[in-house]
Amino acid sequence: MSDATTQARSKTSAGTMSGKTIRPDEAAHFGRLAKDWWDPKGSSAMLHRLNPVRLKFLRDAIDLHWANDIEARKPLAGKSALDVGCGAGLLCEPLARLGADVTGVDAAPENVTAAAIHAESAGLDIRYMAGEIGTIDIGAFDLVTAMEVIEHVADKRAFIAALAARLAPGGLLALSTPNRTPQSRLLMVGAAETFGLIPRGTHHWDDFVTPEELGELLDEAGLDMGEPTGIAFSPSKGLHLSDDLSLNYLVTARAR
Predict the structure, then answer these.
(1) 196 carries a ligand binding annotation
(2) 125 marked ligand binding residue
(3) 106 known member of a binding site
(4) Which of 27, 149, 159, 171 is 20–30 Å from 251 (CA)?
(5) pLDDT in tens, 134-159
(6) Vertex 161, ends 23 and 241: CA angle to 5°?
(7) What domains are there in the chain, each with its CATH number?
(8) How far apart are CA 246 and CA 227, in angstroms?
(9) Which residues contact 31 (CB under 8 A, 6 or more apart)?
């Protein structure tokens, strides 16, 4: 990445843009992956491995937030869910199966097209839309998720504000993102892209967000962040929830 590009990313990440969060180059990058997003051995294979870990975190957070029966098959029945940066629907479909009325929004039109086709083939009624989350009039939702998204947006402050604006009273926000640490630089950018575990150009380490930074952004938006949970890797466990935040982490947030 050139110095000029790095400076531009740092500037927009600080919130100096006019509220636009989509980076056209990022949207184009992920749009090119749309055709094989659902292939567990394709370019999104790492997301397929990550999804069960995210879902375990989400299920626990949902049950705790709404005091659900942990054995319930549809803990989101009667509730609405919005997944921002939904890609081709890897998280939207499980949320629908948990009973939610689901909407997915993504920056890349190719992704929402692939998502809609896959949902229809699976017999799931999910609404998909492409565009800027801060400008789409879609109302408020009980659950809002944005998994592995904030590190790709142009204006992080505007993005968090847009997520907060979509949260219904008493709702729950859940996010995940890589942490900006030496470990994530070595493994998530260097090793993962070098060895083809994720497509080259997917991550830019300077855009990773620390838990402290994310907490400040959420606080500015009137949200209280819960205790972060790490996503770690070991040869014996694979990807798993952990106290180790050095690579990746998940958080929930609620309006004050």
Answers:
(1) no
(2) no
(3) yes
(4) 27
(5) 999 999 999 999 999 999 999 999 99
(6) 80
(7) 3-255 (3.40.50.150)
(8) 15
(9) 108, 109, 110, 111
